[in-house]
Design brief:
Number of strands: 16
Strand order of the largest sheet: 1-5-6-11-10-9-7-8
Largest sheet: 8 strands, mixed
Bound molecules: adenosine-5'-triphosphate, magnesium ion
Radius of gyration: 28 Å
Strand content: 15-25%
Structural class: alpha+beta
C-alpha cells in the first residue's frame, strides 16, 4: 500500500463541506470588501521566495520544497501566497491599473516543517493583498477583513497588533537589540546566532524556549518608532476602534517574514494550544521594490484554513451540513431500475438531488443505502407501479407512504 506523504492530509468527501463552508465565507467576505481573486501558479522560480520572503527566514533557510526541473531550473512550491501575488502584480503592470489593487487568494502552501497538530507540510491559506495604498486606514481595513471573517465563522479570537517601524527607526532598534543580546549570545540557539548578525529583529520570533526566555526582556520596538511611524500606528489603532475591532498591543510580534514594515498583527486562539496563530499579516511597503517593481506600498494577511477549522471544531462551532438527497428511487428489477434512471434524470434536470441504484441490489439493500446517504424520501418502483405509472413514495422521517404518479414526481418533490 502506498501511504500519504508525511505532513499532508486528505479531505474526505464526508468532510469537504466544512472546507467549502470556510472557503465560501472567505469569498463572501472578500466580496463585501470588493476584493477580487488572484490565482498564481503553485510553483515559482526559487529566487522569487529568496528575494520576496527573505533569506534569513525559517521558510527560506529550511522549509522550502525546492527542486530542479528537467530544464535545470530551480523551482519551489509556494510556501506562502504573497510573493506570487506580488510577482504577478509587477509582471502584469498592475500599477497602471486600478489602485489600490485589492486581491485575495485561496491556496495550498508547502513548508518542510516538523508535522504536529496545526502544522502540516501541505496546508491551505486564505490571504488578502492590497497594493498601492499607504494610509493607516488601509491597514485597519485589512485587519477588519480578517476580523469580519473570523466573526462570521463564529470565532472569538484575540487580535494582537504591533508596529515594527520603517528602515529608519529599525536601524536604531536593531542596534539596541544587538546591544541587548550581545552578553547573552552564547545562550542563544544556532539560528539566532546567525540572525544576530543578519537580522536581529528575527531573534524575537524564535520558537526555542531558551531564546524565548531571553527575549522577554528585550527592548521594545515601539519605544524606537520615528515620528511618522508612531503617527501611523496611532491612526491604525483609532481606525480599528472606530470599526469596533478590539485589539491588544503585543510588542513581541515581528512576524516570520522579512518584508514587513510598520503594522504587524496576529489573530491568536487560546483553544488550540501551541499552534494558536490562525491569521497573521501586516504592511510590507518594501516588497514590490525588493522584487524589482516600482515602489508600491502593500498590506495583507494570510489565515491558515486548517487552523481555522481546528478552532471551530474545538469551540463547538456547528457547520451547516450539506443538503441531503431529496429522493432515492428504488427499482425492484432491471426494468424498474431503468424507469428509476429516467425519473431521476428528470428530477436532476429540474435541480433536485436524486439518487438511484448502481449495484443491482435488492430493494431492501437499496433502502439501506438510501438511509446511509440520508435520502429524505425513497420512491419504490415494483412491477405493479410500473404498470400503473406511479411510485410508492415513503418519507424516511415520518415513515408515511403515498402513491405519486411518475409525471407528477418533479412537481411533488419540488414542494418538499
Ligand atoms: P507559525 O508561527 O505558526 O509558524 P507563521 O508565522 O510561519 O506561523 P505565516 O507565514 O504568517 O505563519 O502564515 C499565515 C498562517 O498560515 C499562520 O497564521 C497559520 O495559521 C498558517 N500556517 C503557517 N504555517 C503552517 C503550517 N505549517 N501548517 C498549517 N498552517 C500553517
Ligand atoms: Mg512558521
Amino acid at each position: 500500500m502506498i501511504n500519504i506523504p508525511k505532513g499532508t492530509k486528505d479531505v474526505l468527501p464526508a468532510d469537504s463541506y466544512k472546507w467549502q463552508y470556510v472557503e465560501g465565507m472567505a469569498r463572501e467576505v472578500s466580496r463585501l470588501f470588493n476584493v477580487k481573486e488572484i490565482r498564481t501558479p503553485v510553483f515559482e522560480h526559487t529566487e522569487l521566495f529568496q528575494r520576496g520572503v527573505g533569506d534569513t527566514t525559517d521558510i527560506v533557510t529550511k522549509e522550502m520544497y525546492t527542486f530542479k526541473d528537467k530544464g535545470d531550473r530551480s523551482i519551489t512550491l509556494k510556501p506562502e501566497g504573497t510573493a506570487g501575488a506580488a510577482r504577478s502584480f509587477i509582471e502584469n503592470g498592475m500599477y497602471s491599473g486600478v489602485l489600490p489593487t485589492k486581491m485575495y487568494y485561496i491556496i495550498p502552501a508547502f513548508r518542510y516543517e516538523r508535522p504536529q497538530a496545526g502544522r502540516l507540510r501541505e496546508f491551505h491559506q486564505f490571504g488578502v493583498e492590497v497594493y498601492g495604498a499607504a494610509s493607516a486606514q488601509t491597514d485597519a481595513e485589512v485587519i477588519f477583513i480578517a476580523d469580519t471573517l473570523l466573526k462570521k465563522l463564529g470565532l472569538q479570537i484575540k487580535l494582537y497588533i504591533n508596529s515594527i517601524g520603517c528602515p529608519t527607526c529599525r536601524a536604531a532598534y536593531n542596534q539596541a537589540l544587538k546591544d541587548f543580546f550581545a552578553p547573552n549570545l552564547e545562550m542563544l540557539c544556532a539560528d539566532c546566532k546567525n540572525r544576530y548578525e543578519k537580522n536581529p529583529l528575527r531573534l524575537l520570533d524564535c520558537k526555542e524556549e531558551g531564546c524565548k526566555a531571553i527575549n522577554v526582556n528585550a527592548p521594545k520596538i515601539l519605544d524606537y518608532l520615528c515620528e511618522e511611524c508612531h503617527a501611523h500606528f496611532e491612526e491604525v489603532k483609532s481606525c480599528l476602534s472606530s470599526a469596533g475591532v478590539e485589539y491588544e498591543i503585543d510588542p513581541r510580534i515581528v512576524r516570520g517574514l522579512d518584508y514587513y514594515t510598520r503594522t504587524v498583527f496576529e489573530f491568536v486562539s487560546t483553544s488550540i494550544g501551541a499552534q494558536g496563530t490562525v491569521c497573521g499579516g501586516g504592511r510590507y511597503d518594501k516588497l514590490i521594490e525588493q522584487l524589482g517593481g516600482k515602489p508600491t506600498p502593500a498590506v495583507g494577511f494570510a489565515a491558515g484554513i486548517e487552523r481555522l477549522l481546528m478552532v471551530m471544531e474545538q469551540t463547538g462551532v456547528v457547520i451547516p451540513e450539506p443538503e441531503r438527497p431529496t429522493v432515492y428511487i428504488a427499482g425492484m428489477d432491471a426494468e424498474c431500475r431503468k424507469k428509476a434512471f429516467a425519473l431521476a434524470s428528470e428530477l436532476r434536470k429540474n435541480g433536485l438531488i436524486a439518487e438511484i441504484d448502481h449495484m443491482d441490489r435488492s430493494v431492501k439493500a437499496q433502502f439501506k443505502y438510501a438511509d446511509k446517504i440520508g435520502a429524505r424520501y425513497v420512491a419504490v418502483i415494483g412491477g405493479n407501479e410500473l404498470i400503473e405509472g406511479k411510485a410508492n413514495v415513503k418519507c424516511m422521517e415520518t415513515g408515511e407512504s403515498e402513491s405519486v404518479a411518475f409525471d407528477q414526481m418533479t412537481e411533488y418533490f419540488k414542494k418538499k
